[in-house]
Amino acid sequence: MVKALSTQCENIEGLHYEIIVADDGSSNEHTRIVNKEILELDNIQYIIRKSNVGRAAIRNFLAKEAQYKWLLFIDSDMSVDNDEFILKYLEQDDKFDVIYGGYSLAFGDSSNLRYIYEKNAEKAHVASKRKCHSYLDLHTANLLISREVILSIPFDERIKNYGYEDVLLGKKLKENNIEILHIDNQLTLDNYESNEDYLEKTKEGLHTLKVFSNELHGYSRLLTIAERLSRYHQRWIIKLFWKISQKHLERKLISKKPSLFTYTIYKLGYFISIF
Predict the structure, then answer these.
(1) How many CB atoms lie within 10 A of CB 181?
(2) Are 42 and 19 in contact (CB under 8 A)?
(3) What is the pLDDT of residues 75-131, one digit of tens each?
(4) Whole-number pLDDT of residue 15
(5) Closest CA to 266 of 216, 198, 215
(6) 148 CB-near residues (< 8 Å, 6+ apart)
(7) Which region among 6-15, 36-45, 215-224 has the lowest average model confidence (pLDDT)?
(8) Residue 60: pLDDT over 70
(9) How many other β-carbons are positioned within 10 Å of the β-carbon of residue 174?
């Protein structure tokens, strides 16, 4: 991905750019060795952090390290398949301080939980759909934002674990009347973690949702359902079901035939059990 971005930038006459890659405390030595190869490219910084500070803090760190007006945040599980990806961002109206390009999906396997979840939501990833929920449908996987904005409205570093740092950023942008331009300039998600890893990531995200539930009111459908169940004193039903079914649901989700229905029920049960 870094090589593809570098090639595109080099081919745009007069473009001043830098690419900063941050290793946020990775313990995978092979990844570090491979990543060091990108230092052979021009205008590249590769920064290795000793410890993992979290998705919010590492993005704020990158914003402070950057020297130019615009920042393009890209996640490591994305790839560049569009030869005019950078050029399309440059062509956008600079009256917008935040532009989100979205993402598409590489081919995956129906036995992979992450893939079938993303595939089910794929139609909602296009700009025409995202515009309907502009501040809710914002992800840092492919986000162009002015450095001035992110330094004045940084990612919330209280979030140390996975999930919702982008949602809280969207909320802060709305509160500050900063408009988001949604366009179709997708990167491709091409790295689907194992079902076990995705389930652990899901649980981590649900704990983040619980911790920040007051601030995320109105920004999570699952939270809205949980609040409604509490209001009508119905949580006990879900908790009883969860106590009986948790292990069975987990076995189904890490199997070769996971289902989205099971995944939805699992998330509700898990969240209610900690809410």
Answers:
(1) 17
(2) no
(3) 988 999 999 999 999 999 889 999 999 999 999 999 999 999 999 999 999 999 999
(4) 95
(5) 198
(6) 69, 97
(7) 36-45
(8) yes
(9) 16
Residue type, 122: E
> For the chain, percent helix, then strand, then coil, each to nearest 5?
50, 15, 35
Q: CA of 206: how far to CAs of 33, 154, 201, 267, in Å?
A: 33, 22, 9, 8
Give burial (CB, 10 Å; 0-12/13-18/19+) of 137. buried
Residue appearing with tokens 């990108």: 38
Which amino acid makes up residue 166?
Answer: D
Q: Which domains does the chain have, with CATH numbers?
A: 2-189 (3.90.550.10), 195-274 (no CATH)
Matching residue, tokens 């995320």: 216
Nearest to 215, CA basis, from 172, 173, 178, 177: 172
Report the 3 state secondary structure along 204-270.
Answer: HHHHHHHHCCCCCCCCCHHHHHHHHHHHCCCHHHHHHHHHHHHHHHHHHHCCCCCCHHHHHHHHHHH
The rounded distance, in Å, linking the Cα atoms of 272 and 239 is 7
Quick one: 185 exposed, middle or buried, by C-beta within 10 A (0-12, 13-18, 19+)? buried
Q: What are the distances in angstroms from CA 140 to CA 145, 160, 167, 168, 257?
A: 10, 16, 9, 11, 30
- Within 13 Å, how many C-alpha atoms sit on residue 226's CB side? 24
Taking CA atoms, 219 is separated from 88, 143, 155, 225, in Å, by 30, 19, 16, 12
